Please model this.
Amino acid sequence: MATATKKTELTTSTSPEALLKTHATSASQKGGVGKSFWERAKIEFLRERDVPIAAYDMDGGTGSVARILGERDEHGELKPTEDQDPLKGVRSYNIHKNRGREAFADSSALEYKHIQIDTPGGGFDALSDIMDGGSNSLQGLYEAILKEGRKPIIEHIITPEDESVESVRRYLDATEGLPIQHIAILNMRDADEKSDFEMWFGYTDLETGEKVGGNARAEFLENGGIEIVMPKLAIGAALRMKRYNLTFTAASQDARLTVTQRGQVSRWLREMWKELLGNKKFLEIYGI
Model:
């Protein structure tokens, strides 16, 4: 495990209100794992329950979070990012440009209680450029966020592919020693059951009898990590939702989806909301 050259002990206010101030971002060095899909679901879930969450999309204005959840004018056109209220819509930046990188950190000083930032795949290097000199560390960045009295949250999107698990290891090493809440989102899109996540849970090599994988998860759990299972949604329904810029709730009722697709979205919603409502640690973070 990589070890930071110097660890800084940080303390935050223990008042209930301060503990509920969060700065969350989805993370994966691998693209196409479902980060934006998760972000859209989480933001929709929280806003439905009147949890104030300011949303930011760091994909340069082309991300599905901004397109689907962003505010629109009377003609149905997406409002410019400068006119977006982050609590109602989504404000866009480009993490690969200086202004976008600075917005990632500077957002922690804003008045919003909860901040959610969608970053594109492979965003680690851009984040490390902000305060850590483009190294393999994110210590400086997250120390700065902690000093603003926020609880940093890193949400790792896990798929059965090895690269998504390797990404978790990289973020754990880069933030070692800091009081960050790590959350693993097991995306069932390409899996039939949890055992398909072999490198996350680990498995026994049939030839040698040795255990393979599972180390990143063990460290993740030792650090108080939270696991959430994101159910599978039929690809046709998911693509039509995205094509028409529909939220999950809207898609479950929209006539542009077939009866079957609307039913698939409705079932997904029930399963996803049940998963979140059954996760006490997740609910406590957001005061639900």
User: Anything to note?
Assistant: The chain has one domain: 26-230. The two ends are 35 Å apart (CA to CA). The CA atoms of residues 203 and 212 lie 5 Å apart.
